[in-house]
Amino acid sequence: MPRAVTDLGQVLDDPSIDVVHICTPNQTHVEMASAAMEAGKHVVVEKPVAVDRPGASMLLDVARRTGRHAAVALTYRGYPMVRRARELVHGGHLGRLRLVHGGYLQDWLSDANGYNWRVDPAAGGVSRAFADIGTHWFDTVEYIARARVVAVMADLATLVPVRHRPVRSGAAFSGASGTTEPVSIETEDVATVLVRFEDGARGTLVVSQVSPGHKNDLTIELSGSDRSLAWAQESPEQLWVGARDESALLARSPSGAGPPVGIPSLPAGHPEGWAEALRDVLRPFYAAISAGGPPPDGADATYPTLADGARGVALIEAVVESARIGRWVDVCPIQTPSEPYGSRTFPGGPVG
Ligand SMILES: NC(=O)c1ccc[n+]([C@@H]2O[C@H](COP(=O)([O-])OP(=O)(O)OC[C@H]3O[C@@H](n4cnc5c(N)ncnc54)[C@H](O)[C@@H]3O)[C@@H](O)[C@H]2O)c1
Description:
The chain is of the alpha+beta class. The protein has helices at residues 8-12, 29-38, 53-66, 80-90, 121-124, 129-145, 274-291, 306-325; strands at residues 19-22, 42-45, 70-72, 97-105, 149-157, 162-166, 180-184, 190-197, 202-208, 217-224, 228-232, 238-242, 248-251, 329-330.
């Protein structure tokens, strides 16, 4: 029976609840997820898992110490054709990776009436467009390519410098209505990022939340020495495979990448989309909890872990720093702190 409460403490005190999904504004993730794990709950944490390096590091520490399963909703890994692309790369079909490019374009903040907690650094963090959607692009690329980005050169721009904030409440994913007040905006509307991979491959990414007509336009193309692969989130059941002699458009098929082990999927020809992708990211997480084993450690993970989430935070940090100093910046892994979690505890009380 569905039940709603406004106090996280009531959720954490309820022994019938095994898993807590943290789907609140970014700035709240670390304290809420930590409190949930300390209370013995497994967690699903939304991206970005933290708004800074210390927060991500603390989350890793709490997860390790409490032994709880902790997944991150890196949704795009769940698409069948993304997994198919990963298999093709693993099978050597691309040859040596040379170039990765693409974009993540949206339009919901195109005009000054677009307002949401994300534009406020106090709620969303210092990066907005990159943290919100650019991190998805990087995670999906690294997941497909099985290659790490080691350095970035980024330019961030705020192209709508003043927005109209609703005086009473924020309107998610829509223009504000009613009384508003002007607010100066510091977080970026667009990010352009040059990328270097560990094996010498190069890349480029364009991120925007102010590109009219683009709704959730995530595109990825990888070129290797033998073949290229291209995937677009808005046509998710297709994967383009390019070669010098003959190119092909693959459709999801029973012989292609199936769902993660043990997960029923719709038969080919019955289009799957964003909701099914999120389902397929989370089902292995719930299966792992049901199996009763410890959380996965590293490469054996069947679901995106906090380490993957912390990787996104490291990328945000590198992109923001690169834009600040105008130079290439290395992406430095986030470690678990040697010190215990310390005095940061969830303050409790009603939630808004
Ligand atoms: N994985 C994905 O593909 C994906 C997609 C969308 C959003 N997200 C992430 O999900 C999170 C939420 O984004 P959204 O678009 O759903 O935001 P939203 O504004 O639509 O929803 C946030 C919810 O959190 C509640 N809330 C705010 N402060 C709270 C508090 N202190 N305690 C308890 N509840 C509180 C609000 O009432 C609201 O219901 C963000 O971190 C975002 O990055 C991830």
